[in-house]
Amino acid sequence: MTRILHVLDHSLPMHSGYTFRTRAILRAQMGRGWEVRGITGRRHSAAGPQAETVDGLTFHRTPGEPAVGNAVLREWRDIAAHADAIDALVRQWRPDVIHAHSPVLNAMAAQRVAKRHGIPMIYEIRAFWEDAAVGNGTGTEGSPRYWLTRQLETHAVRAADAVAVICEGLRGDLIARGIDPAKIIVSPNGVDMDQFGAPVPRDPALTAKLGLEGADVVGFIGSFYDYEGLDDLIAAMPRLVRARPRAKLLLVGGGPVEQALRDQALASPFTDHIVFVGRVPHDQVENYYAQVDVLAYPRKAMRLTDLVTPLKPLEAMAQGRLVAASSVGGHRELIEDGVTGTLFAPDDPAAIAASIAGLFADRGMWDDRRAVARAFVERDRNWSSNILRYEPVYQRLLARPDKVRAVA
């Protein structure tokens, strides 16, 4: 039986788009009859034992807190600690393939171990680390650190036996760096339809609690980062409410810019049309999707959003919700304007308001739009079928004539 060791930044029981994609991959691989485990680095911050089972999945932890001090030295120490923990697990469990997931620190740690033991390694990129740092406000495009991180990313890709990316934008960028296209597969974001594909009915009690009775509800459910463009969504509300007086905005989640968004909403002349819920347990998220008519994703135009496809619009489609999103590259890979969703110009509150108002004015097409979007997810973005993209890569790596099993 094939054993796959996934090298991760963090995992369940922490909740993020990263952990939910990981869960979907591991669950689907187990469904194929493969043995899978994960090992996380020091940035996994949830308390727990060194090895634990969460949602039926086994995860091992790299011991110790993240190193302190100079950023470069800190990261090298964390890589070394992660590599030591991976090495110990490899000696104990003897995986056939190491599957490292971004950020690049994980690939660097995993490559040390893979080379030492003659185990093939695939590196999966969900976003380039340098661009993610710009997106979350901890880095600057064009800075020396940005340049160095980009060089490390390119080196890790060249050293990997195979590379997976989540979208065509990332694949195109790697090819432009000189990476052989034959080395790269696209494993797009998907939805676990067994877990998330059965929409629940709207709960009238929750509707009343949120003050949404009779409202045209626009919603966002996810993490509050600056690049998500939620400030533009709040700025669009005066125009939207003037066009649709019953419109309300439901914001579910939290993150680095939450307080700034709350302050902005309080200063809005239509503050009573904006509802903040905060973070909710993952097993309750479906109840909030059921409250929303149109899920809005107003991501700002920048390199990160042009290259990377998000997960949330797919979840909304699976839940039978209408989707409206900015026309950045990552959204254009997921959403066909006028077919599976509605696209509007990024960084433009007026465009947001006009697009969403137009959706509420044309309810006659809602059922067809929802059905087409859900069918797209079931056919092209369902993890039970997406997982098949990995299988030929694993088989090719395991069939390498130079593969050596040197685990002591």
From TrEMBL:
It holds the Pfam family Glyco_trans_1_4. Signal peptide: none annotated. InterPro entries: Glyco_trans_4-like_N, Glycosyltransferase_grp1, PEP-CTERM/XrtA_GlycosylTrfase. CDD domains: GT4_WbuB-like (cd03794). It comes from the Bacteria. Residues 17-190 form the Glycosyltransferase subfamily 4-like N-terminal domain. Transmembrane segments: none annotated. NCBIfam families: stp3. This is TIGR04063 family PEP-CTERM/XrtA system glycosyltransferase. It comes from Sphingobium rhizovicinum.
